[in-house]
Amino acid sequence: MAKNKMKEKVIDTEPIKDDREEVAEAAQEMVEEQTGDKVTDQAAEEDDKSARMAAAESEWQDKYLRLVAEFDNYRKRTLREKMDLIASGGEDVIKSLLTVMDDIDRALDAMSKSSDIDSIRQGIVLIHQKLLETLHAKGVEEITAIGKELDTDLHEAVAKFPVSDEKKGKIIDVVQKGYKLKDKVVRFAKVVVGE
């Protein structure tokens, strides 16, 4: 009987072991399914993220290429405008000087027809004044020099001449007038300085 009880116990434990194994196998399968689902979900998320990143990269590349093309067009346009400005930059000044040139032509014509020196002189003075007014309207100013101290930013000393003490270091004569265009020196005044 003792053997029968042992058999019963053995018989009873075997199905329990089988149940445990089945439960363990079922649990393992569930874990694998869930893990597989998680892996599948993670893979899908990674694929989605990768697709979004690729789309963003493509969008940035497109923006970059458009910006480069836009800048290149801007550079070409400004270069073309600069060349046009250089080609026709003096046109306004030339147009204003043409009226003075017309006056000079009329004065020369009058000189050949008339012997009245005073009227010719007055005509030339008027032409000179008109030329100065035209240049002044364009921003050109004469550099005043006589009686001033030598300023190497405006004057070029071409000679020195002995003078009295009060005129030493000062400009006593102008060999060639100097001019400024707005604040920039276009031509330095060539002067004689007293020493």
Automatic annotation (TrEMBL):
UniProt signal peptide: none
Compartment(s) where it occurs, according to its Swiss-Prot or TrEMBL record: Cytoplasm
Keyword Cytoplasm: yes
Record's keyword terms, sorted: Chaperone, Cytoplasm, Stress response
Broad class of the protein's primary localization: cytoplasm
Start-end of Basic and acidic residues biased regions: 1-20
CDD domains: GrpE
SUPFAM superfamilies assigned to the protein according to its UniProt record, in alphabetical order: Coiled-coil domain of nucleotide exchange factor GrpE, Head domain of nucleotide exchange factor GrpE
Matches recorded under InterPro entries: GrpE, GrpE_CC, GrpE_head
Record HAMAP family: GrpE
Protein name: Protein GrpE
Native organism: Alistipes hominis
